[in-house]
Specification:
2 domains; three-stranded parallel beta sheet; 10 helices; six-stranded parallel beta sheet; Rossmann fold; globular; 11 strands; about 300 residues; alpha/beta
Protein backbone atom coordinates (compact mmCIF):
# COMPACT_ATOMS: atom_id res chain seq x y z
CA UNK A 1 0.00 0.00 0.00
CA UNK A 2 1.23 3.47 -0.88
CA UNK A 3 -0.62 6.33 0.74
CA UNK A 4 -2.47 9.01 -1.16
CA UNK A 5 -1.05 12.46 -0.51
CA UNK A 6 -3.19 15.16 1.10
CA UNK A 7 -2.02 18.17 -0.92
CA UNK A 8 -2.23 21.08 1.50
CA UNK A 9 -0.84 23.50 -1.05
CA UNK A 10 -3.66 22.75 -3.52
CA UNK A 11 -6.36 22.80 -0.85
CA UNK A 12 -5.04 26.09 0.55
CA UNK A 13 -5.03 27.61 -2.93
CA UNK A 14 -8.66 26.61 -3.46
CA UNK A 15 -9.65 28.08 -0.07
CA UNK A 16 -7.82 31.33 -0.79
CA UNK A 17 -9.49 31.60 -4.21
CA UNK A 18 -12.90 31.15 -2.57
CA UNK A 19 -12.07 33.79 0.06
CA UNK A 20 -10.94 36.26 -2.60
CA UNK A 21 -14.20 35.75 -4.50
CA UNK A 22 -16.16 36.56 -1.34
CA UNK A 23 -14.06 39.66 -0.69
CA UNK A 24 -14.51 40.77 -4.31
CA UNK A 25 -18.27 40.44 -3.83
CA UNK A 26 -18.05 42.69 -0.76
CA UNK A 27 -16.19 45.31 -2.79
CA UNK A 28 -18.72 45.08 -5.60
CA UNK A 29 -21.50 45.68 -3.08
CA UNK A 30 -19.76 48.85 -1.87
CA UNK A 31 -18.77 47.45 1.51
CA UNK A 32 -15.43 47.85 3.23
CA UNK A 33 -13.01 44.94 3.01
CA UNK A 34 -11.80 42.85 5.96
CA UNK A 35 -8.64 44.07 7.68
CA UNK A 36 -5.85 42.05 9.31
CA UNK A 37 -3.15 43.59 11.52
CA UNK A 38 0.06 41.79 12.47
CA UNK A 39 2.17 43.01 15.38
CA UNK A 40 5.85 42.03 15.32
CA UNK A 41 8.32 42.88 18.07
CA UNK A 42 12.02 42.68 17.22
CA UNK A 43 13.89 41.42 14.15
CA UNK A 44 13.77 37.64 14.39
CA UNK A 45 14.56 36.47 10.80
CA UNK A 46 12.07 33.61 10.80
CA UNK A 47 9.34 35.86 12.17
CA UNK A 48 10.04 38.42 9.46
CA UNK A 49 9.52 35.72 6.82
CA UNK A 50 6.27 34.52 8.42
CA UNK A 51 4.94 38.09 8.66
CA UNK A 52 5.84 38.79 5.04
CA UNK A 53 4.01 35.63 3.92
CA UNK A 54 0.92 36.60 5.93
CA UNK A 55 1.01 40.14 4.49
CA UNK A 56 1.21 38.80 0.93
CA UNK A 57 -1.61 36.32 1.50
CA UNK A 58 -3.83 39.01 3.02
CA UNK A 59 -3.29 41.40 0.13
CA UNK A 60 -3.76 38.59 -2.42
CA UNK A 61 -7.20 37.97 -0.89
CA UNK A 62 -8.09 41.63 -1.47
CA UNK A 63 -8.05 42.46 2.23
CA UNK A 64 -6.49 45.35 4.11
CA UNK A 65 -3.11 44.34 5.55
CA UNK A 66 -1.50 46.35 8.36
CA UNK A 67 1.89 45.65 9.93
CA UNK A 68 2.88 47.16 13.26
CA UNK A 69 6.60 46.85 13.95
CA UNK A 70 8.16 47.52 17.34
CA UNK A 71 11.84 47.34 18.28
CA UNK A 72 13.23 44.46 20.31
CA UNK A 73 13.57 46.90 23.22
CA UNK A 74 9.82 47.63 23.33
CA UNK A 75 8.20 47.41 26.75
CA UNK A 76 5.14 45.39 27.71
CA UNK A 77 3.17 48.63 28.02
CA UNK A 78 4.16 49.73 24.51
CA UNK A 79 3.08 46.42 22.98
CA UNK A 80 -0.21 46.46 24.88
CA UNK A 81 -0.85 50.02 23.73
CA UNK A 82 -0.53 48.94 20.09
CA UNK A 83 -2.91 46.02 20.66
CA UNK A 84 -5.48 48.27 22.38
CA UNK A 85 -5.31 50.77 19.53
CA UNK A 86 -5.98 47.97 17.03
CA UNK A 87 -8.84 46.68 19.18
CA UNK A 88 -10.46 50.11 18.82
CA UNK A 89 -9.76 50.46 15.07
CA UNK A 90 -13.00 49.84 13.13
CA UNK A 91 -11.05 48.97 9.96
CA UNK A 92 -9.31 46.04 11.65
CA UNK A 93 -11.16 42.72 12.03
CA UNK A 94 -8.26 40.47 12.93
CA UNK A 95 -5.17 40.94 15.11
CA UNK A 96 -2.29 38.59 15.68
CA UNK A 97 0.96 39.02 17.56
CA UNK A 98 3.81 37.18 15.87
CA UNK A 99 5.59 34.80 18.25
CA UNK A 100 8.13 34.55 19.72
CA UNK A 101 8.40 37.95 21.41
CA UNK A 102 11.43 39.26 23.35
CA UNK A 103 11.85 37.90 26.88
CA UNK A 104 10.66 41.11 28.59
CA UNK A 105 7.23 40.67 26.99
CA UNK A 106 4.60 38.43 28.59
CA UNK A 107 3.18 36.80 25.45
CA UNK A 108 0.11 35.37 27.20
CA UNK A 109 -0.85 38.77 28.61
CA UNK A 110 -0.48 40.33 25.16
CA UNK A 111 -2.52 37.63 23.42
CA UNK A 112 -5.22 37.80 26.09
CA UNK A 113 -5.42 41.56 25.50
CA UNK A 114 -6.57 41.04 21.90
CA UNK A 115 -10.32 41.60 21.63
CA UNK A 116 -11.94 38.17 21.49
CA UNK A 117 -13.86 39.07 18.33
CA UNK A 118 -10.55 39.96 16.60
CA UNK A 119 -8.54 36.98 17.87
CA UNK A 120 -7.90 35.35 14.47
CA UNK A 121 -5.21 33.06 15.90
CA UNK A 122 -7.94 31.54 18.08
CA UNK A 123 -5.75 31.62 21.19
CA UNK A 124 -7.99 33.69 23.48
CA UNK A 125 -9.36 31.61 26.38
CA UNK A 126 -12.90 32.50 25.35
CA UNK A 127 -12.40 31.22 21.80
CA UNK A 128 -10.77 28.04 23.09
CA UNK A 129 -13.65 27.65 25.53
CA UNK A 130 -16.19 27.95 22.73
CA UNK A 131 -14.31 25.24 20.83
CA UNK A 132 -14.39 23.03 23.94
CA UNK A 133 -18.16 23.58 24.15
CA UNK A 134 -18.51 22.55 20.47
CA UNK A 135 -19.77 25.99 19.40
CA UNK A 136 -16.59 27.40 17.80
CA UNK A 137 -16.22 30.95 16.63
CA UNK A 138 -12.57 31.73 15.80
CA UNK A 139 -10.50 28.54 15.82
CA UNK A 140 -6.72 27.98 16.10
CA UNK A 141 -5.51 28.05 12.51
CA UNK A 142 -3.37 24.91 12.24
CA UNK A 143 -5.88 22.45 13.77
CA UNK A 144 -8.68 24.15 11.81
CA UNK A 145 -6.59 23.63 8.68
CA UNK A 146 -6.14 19.96 9.54
CA UNK A 147 -9.90 19.53 9.73
CA UNK A 148 -10.36 21.27 6.38
CA UNK A 149 -7.81 18.90 4.83
CA UNK A 150 -9.79 15.91 6.07
CA UNK A 151 -13.01 17.48 4.78
CA UNK A 152 -11.60 18.18 1.32
CA UNK A 153 -10.19 14.65 1.13
CA UNK A 154 -13.52 13.06 2.05
CA UNK A 155 -12.21 11.63 5.33
CA UNK A 156 -14.73 11.49 8.17
CA UNK A 157 -13.08 11.18 11.62
CA UNK A 158 -16.31 10.01 13.27
CA UNK A 159 -15.71 6.75 15.09
CA UNK A 160 -11.98 6.76 14.45
CA UNK A 161 -9.39 6.15 17.16
CA UNK A 162 -7.32 9.34 16.86
CA UNK A 163 -3.96 9.91 18.52
CA UNK A 164 -2.64 13.46 18.86
CA UNK A 165 1.08 13.70 19.57
CA UNK A 166 1.80 16.91 21.48
CA UNK A 167 -0.28 18.94 23.91
CA UNK A 168 0.56 22.53 22.98
CA UNK A 169 -2.09 25.23 23.15
CA UNK A 170 -1.39 26.03 19.49
CA UNK A 171 -1.77 22.56 17.96
CA UNK A 172 -2.23 19.53 20.24
CA UNK A 173 -5.00 20.59 22.59
CA UNK A 174 -7.20 22.37 20.02
CA UNK A 175 -6.62 19.53 17.53
CA UNK A 176 -7.98 17.09 20.10
CA UNK A 177 -11.02 19.32 20.63
CA UNK A 178 -11.61 19.56 16.86
CA UNK A 179 -11.49 15.78 16.51
CA UNK A 180 -13.78 15.27 19.50
CA UNK A 181 -16.24 17.66 17.90
CA UNK A 182 -16.26 15.48 14.80
CA UNK A 183 -16.94 12.30 16.75
CA UNK A 184 -13.48 10.74 17.00
CA UNK A 185 -12.24 8.94 20.11
CA UNK A 186 -9.15 10.93 21.03
CA UNK A 187 -5.97 10.17 22.94
CA UNK A 188 -3.39 12.91 23.56
CA UNK A 189 0.20 11.72 23.94
CA UNK A 190 3.01 13.84 25.39
CA UNK A 191 6.50 13.66 26.87
CA UNK A 192 5.34 11.57 29.83
CA UNK A 193 3.22 9.11 27.88
CA UNK A 194 4.21 5.50 28.47
CA UNK A 195 4.46 3.08 25.52
CA UNK A 196 3.90 5.89 23.03
CA UNK A 197 4.57 3.66 20.02
CA UNK A 198 1.76 1.33 21.10
CA UNK A 199 -0.70 4.24 21.16
CA UNK A 200 0.31 5.20 17.62
CA UNK A 201 0.09 1.58 16.39
CA UNK A 202 -3.62 1.36 17.23
CA UNK A 203 -4.55 4.79 15.78
CA UNK A 204 -6.80 5.15 12.75
CA UNK A 205 -5.75 8.82 12.60
CA UNK A 206 -2.47 10.33 13.77
CA UNK A 207 -1.83 14.08 14.24
CA UNK A 208 1.86 14.66 14.92
CA UNK A 209 2.85 18.04 16.35
CA UNK A 210 5.83 17.58 18.67
CA UNK A 211 8.61 19.39 16.80
CA UNK A 212 11.04 16.46 16.62
CA UNK A 213 12.29 15.45 13.16
CA UNK A 214 11.06 12.04 12.03
CA UNK A 215 10.30 11.04 15.62
CA UNK A 216 7.30 8.92 14.60
CA UNK A 217 8.66 5.82 12.89
CA UNK A 218 6.96 4.48 9.82
CA UNK A 219 6.65 1.01 11.37
CA UNK A 220 4.46 2.50 14.11
CA UNK A 221 1.75 3.48 11.63
CA UNK A 222 -1.26 1.20 11.52
CA UNK A 223 -1.93 -0.10 7.99
CA UNK A 224 -4.57 2.13 6.42
CA UNK A 225 -4.24 4.93 8.97
CA UNK A 226 -4.51 8.64 8.12
CA UNK A 227 -1.43 10.70 9.05
CA UNK A 228 -1.43 14.48 9.48
CA UNK A 229 2.14 15.68 10.04
CA UNK A 230 2.17 19.17 11.55
CA UNK A 231 5.93 19.23 12.22
CA UNK A 232 8.32 21.40 10.23
CA UNK A 233 11.97 20.69 11.07
CA UNK A 234 15.14 21.68 9.26
CA UNK A 235 17.95 19.13 9.40
CA UNK A 236 21.66 20.13 9.48
CA UNK A 237 21.76 19.24 5.77
CA UNK A 238 19.13 21.90 5.11
CA UNK A 239 16.41 19.38 4.25
CA UNK A 240 12.97 20.11 5.72
CA UNK A 241 11.18 17.14 7.27
CA UNK A 242 8.16 16.55 9.47
CA UNK A 243 7.70 14.75 12.76
CA UNK A 244 6.87 11.51 10.92
CA UNK A 245 9.31 9.26 9.06
CA UNK A 246 7.60 9.99 5.76
CA UNK A 247 9.07 7.45 3.32
CA UNK A 248 8.36 4.49 5.59
CA UNK A 249 5.01 5.81 6.83
CA UNK A 250 3.61 6.37 3.35
CA UNK A 251 3.96 2.63 2.62
CA UNK A 252 1.56 1.84 5.48
CA UNK A 253 -0.86 4.78 5.65
CA UNK A 254 -3.90 5.28 3.43
CA UNK A 255 -3.53 9.09 3.44
CA UNK A 256 -0.58 11.23 4.54
CA UNK A 257 0.47 14.88 4.42
CA UNK A 258 3.88 15.70 2.95
CA UNK A 259 6.36 18.10 4.53
CA UNK A 260 6.69 20.66 3.09
CA UNK A 261 3.45 21.22 1.19
CA UNK A 262 1.04 19.62 3.63
CA UNK A 263 -0.27 21.29 6.77
CA UNK A 264 1.99 24.37 6.49
CA UNK A 265 0.14 26.17 3.64
CA UNK A 266 -3.17 25.54 5.40
CA UNK A 267 -2.23 27.58 8.47
CA UNK A 268 -2.04 30.86 6.54
CA UNK A 269 -5.14 29.97 4.52
CA UNK A 270 -7.11 29.47 7.73
CA UNK A 271 -5.77 32.74 9.13
CA UNK A 272 -7.29 34.52 6.12
CA UNK A 273 -10.48 32.47 6.55
CA UNK A 274 -10.67 33.47 10.22
CA UNK A 275 -10.21 37.13 9.28
CA UNK A 276 -13.13 36.92 6.88
CA UNK A 277 -15.26 35.15 9.49
CA UNK A 278 -14.35 37.78 12.11
CA UNK A 279 -15.39 40.48 9.64
CA UNK A 280 -18.71 38.74 8.97
CA UNK A 281 -19.43 38.45 12.70
CA UNK A 282 -18.61 42.13 13.30
CA UNK A 283 -20.66 43.26 10.31
CA UNK A 284 -23.65 41.12 11.24
CA UNK A 285 -23.37 39.05 8.06
CA UNK A 286 -23.02 35.87 10.13
CA UNK A 287 -24.95 36.11 13.37
CA UNK A 288 -23.00 34.74 16.32
CA UNK A 289 -26.23 33.64 17.96
CA UNK A 290 -26.79 31.13 15.16
CA UNK A 291 -23.78 28.98 15.97
CA UNK A 292 -24.87 25.40 16.31
CA UNK A 293 -23.29 22.55 18.23
CA UNK A 294 -21.40 20.64 15.54
CA UNK A 295 -21.40 17.31 17.35
CA UNK A 296 -24.47 17.14 19.61
CA UNK A 297 -24.31 15.06 22.75
CA UNK A 298 -25.86 11.64 22.44
CA UNK A 299 -27.80 10.13 25.32
CA UNK A 300 -25.95 7.36 27.14
CA UNK A 301 -26.90 3.82 26.14
CA UNK A 302 -29.51 2.15 28.28
CA UNK A 303 -28.23 -0.52 30.65
Amino acid sequence: MTARLIDGKAIALKLREDIKARVDALKAAGRRVPGLAVVIVGNDPASQIYVRNKHQATEAAGMLSVKKELPATATQEEVLAVVQALNADPAIDGILVQLPVPKQIDSKAVIDAIAVEKDVDGFNPQNLGLLAQRTPRLRPCTPYGCMKMLEYSGIDPAGMDAVVLGQSNIVGRPAALELLMKGATVTICHSRTKNLADHVRRADLVVAGIGKPEFVKGEWIKPGAVVLDVGINRLPSGKVVGDVEFEAAKERASWITPVPGGVGPMTIAMLIQNTLEAYEFREGIAAQARREVEQPLSPPPRA
